[in-house]
C-alpha cells in the first residue's frame, strides 16, 4: 500500500483513548506495530501506571527509560516506556532549573506528591510534557557546521495509551489546567510547548469502541467533547470484532427468533453427529443469540457512522492477545489504510 492510501499521513502523535474495558491498550500496541512496519521507529507510551503494555509484548514491567519491546519483519522497531509523574517532575526540574540533584530530598519530603495534590492539573502537564518531548526530539545533526541544522526525528511516530474517554479532553487540554498555576515563566512556557504539539496537525485522538450501546455512546460523547475543545479527532477503532457466521437471510429470521430446527437437525445428521435432534434444539438458541448480536452490532455501526470519522475493525483474538496476535492486528490495520 502506498503512503497516499493511508489516512493519517503526517501524523506523528497518535493518542488512543476509549471507555474502560474496550481494550484501548491492546489497540494502541497494535497501532504502534502497524506504524513501525516498513522500517519505522515508534515509541509507545503509557501514563496510567497500570503496566498494561509489558504483558502484551512479553517483556518485564516498563520503566521511565525507553527500551525496545518489538521488532517487525522488515526491521521496524517499537520502543516503550511508562511515564511516571515523579520522574517527569525531576526531569523537568533538571531541564529548566538544573535541580536534578535535589531529587532525593524532594522524594524524602514528598514534595512531588504534595505539588500534584495541590494542583492536580500539574500531573497531566508533566505526563503530556514527556510525551510531546519525545514527539519533538531529534537526533544530532550530521551537518554540525551548518547553523540551525537539525537531525531527523528520533521517532517516526509516538503512540500514547491515554486515559479513558471521560478524562481525555481534560488530560490533553493542559493550557487550561495550568492557567491557574502560572501565567508566565517556565511552567507556562512548558505547557505552551505541550499544547503546540497537541493542537498541531501532527496530532490526532483516536477512539476505541465496542459494538455495544454504552461504549458507542461514550465514544460519541468523547468525540463531541474533543471537537468542542479544539482537538483533532482521528479514527474510530472498533475492537473485538467477531466474524459473521451465517447467511443474511438466516440471520434476519433468527434475529426475530425463527430458526428451522428440522433443517438444522438434518444438517447435523448428515455430518454424522449423534443425537442430532437434541443438539439442533440446543444449537438453535445459539443461532438466535448470534443473529441478535450481529443485528445489535450493525445498529451500533450506524450510530458510530454519525461521527463521520473513519472506522477500522480490530478482530477479536480467540486465543488471547500475545505478540503474534498483535502483529496480526497490526497487519489488518495497515490493510484497512489506518496507517
Give a written overview of the molecule:
Helix 6 crosses helix 9 (186-198), helix 7 runs parallel beside helix 10 (213-228) and helix 12 (261-270) crosses helix 13. It is built from 14 helices and eight strands. It has 339 residues and is α/β, with parallel strands linked by helices. It folds into two domains: 3-242 and 316-335, P-loop containing nucleotide triphosphate hydrolases (Rossmann fold, 3-Layer(aba) Sandwich); 246-307, no CATH class. Strands 3-4-2-5-1-6-7-8 form an eight-stranded mixed sheet, with helices on both faces. The longest helix is centred in the last third of the chain and has 30 residues, at 276-305.
Task: Name the descriptors.
single chain; 339 residues; alpha/beta; Rossmann fold; 2 domains; 8-stranded mixed beta sheet; 14 helices; elongated
| Oligomeric state of shown chains | single chain
Mean pLDDT: 86
Q: What is the terminal-to-terminal distance?
A: 10 Å
CATH A-level architecture of the largest domain: 3-Layer(aba) Sandwich
> How does the major sheet shape up?
8 strands, mixed
Strand order of the largest sheet: 3-4-2-5-1-6-7-8
> How many domain units?
2
Radius of gyration: 24 Å
Number of strands: 8
Task: Assign the CATH class of the largest domain.
Answer: Alpha Beta
Estimate the strand proportion. 5-15%
Q: How many separate helices?
A: 14
CATH topology of the largest domain: Rossmann fold
Shape: elongated
* Low-pLDDT segments: none
**Which structural class fits the helix and strand makeup?**
alpha/beta
Series of secondary-structure elements, N-terminal to C-terminal: EHEHEEHHHHEHHHEHEHHHEH
Amino acid at each position: 500500500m502506498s503512503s497516499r492510501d493511508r489516512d493519517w499521513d503526517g501524523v506523528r502523535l497518535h493518542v488512543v483513548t476509549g471507555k474502560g474495558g474496550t481494550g484501548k491498550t491492546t489497540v494502541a500496541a497494535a497501532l504502534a506495530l502497524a506504524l513501525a512496519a516498513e522500517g519505522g521507529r515508534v515509541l509507545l507510551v503509557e501514563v496510567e501506571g497500570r503496566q498494561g503494555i509489558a504483558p502484551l509484548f512479553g517483556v518485564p514491567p516498563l520503566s521511565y527509560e525507553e527500551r525496545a519491546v518489538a521488532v517487525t519483519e522488515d526491521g521496524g522497531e517499537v520502543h516503550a516506556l511508562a511515564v511516571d509523574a515523579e520522574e517527569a517532575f525531576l526531569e523537568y526540574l533538571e531541564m529548566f532549573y538544573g535541580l536534578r540533584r535535589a531529587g532525593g530530598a524532594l522524594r524524602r519530603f514528598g514534595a512531588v506528591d504534595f505539588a500534584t495534590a495541590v494542583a492536580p492539573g500539574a500531573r497531566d502537564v508533566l505526563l503530556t510534557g514527556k510525551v510531546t518531548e519525545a514527539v519533538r526530539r531529534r537526533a544530532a545533526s550530521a551537518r554540525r557546521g551548518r547553523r540551525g541544522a537539525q537531525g531527523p526525528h528520533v521517532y517516526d511516530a509516538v503512540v500514547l495509551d491515554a486515559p479513558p474517554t471521560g478524562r481525555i479532553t481534560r488530560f490533553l487540554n493542559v493550557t487550561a489546567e495550568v492557567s491557574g498555576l502560572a501565567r508566565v515563566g517556565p511552567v507556562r512556557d512548558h505547557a505552551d510547548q505541550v499544547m503546540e504539539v497537541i493542537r498541531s496537525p501532527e496530532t490526532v485522538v483516536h477512539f476505541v469502541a465496542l459494538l455495544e450501546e454504552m461504549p458507542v455512546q461514550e465514544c460519541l460523547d468523547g468525540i463531541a467533547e474533543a471537537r468542542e475543545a479544539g482537538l483533532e479527532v482521528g479514527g474510530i477503532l472498533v475492537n473485538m470484532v467477531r466474524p459473521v457466521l451465517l447467511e443474511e437471510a438466516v440471520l434476519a429470521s433468527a434475529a426475530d427468533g425463527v430458526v428451522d430446527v428440522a433443517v438444522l437437525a438434518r444438517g447435523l445428521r448428515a455430518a454424522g453427529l449423534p443425537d442430532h435432534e437434541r443438539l439442533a434444539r440446543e444449537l438453535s438458541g445459539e443461532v438466535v443469540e448470534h443473529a441478535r448480536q450481529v443485528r445489535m452490532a450493525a445498529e451500533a455501526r450506524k450510530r458510530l457512522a454519525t461521527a463521520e470519522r473513519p472506522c477500522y475493525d480490530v478482530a477479536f483474538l480467540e486465543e488471547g492477545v500475545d505478540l503474534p496476535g498483535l502483529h496480526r492486528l497490526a497487519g489488518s490495520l495497515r490493510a484497512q489504510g489506518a496507517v
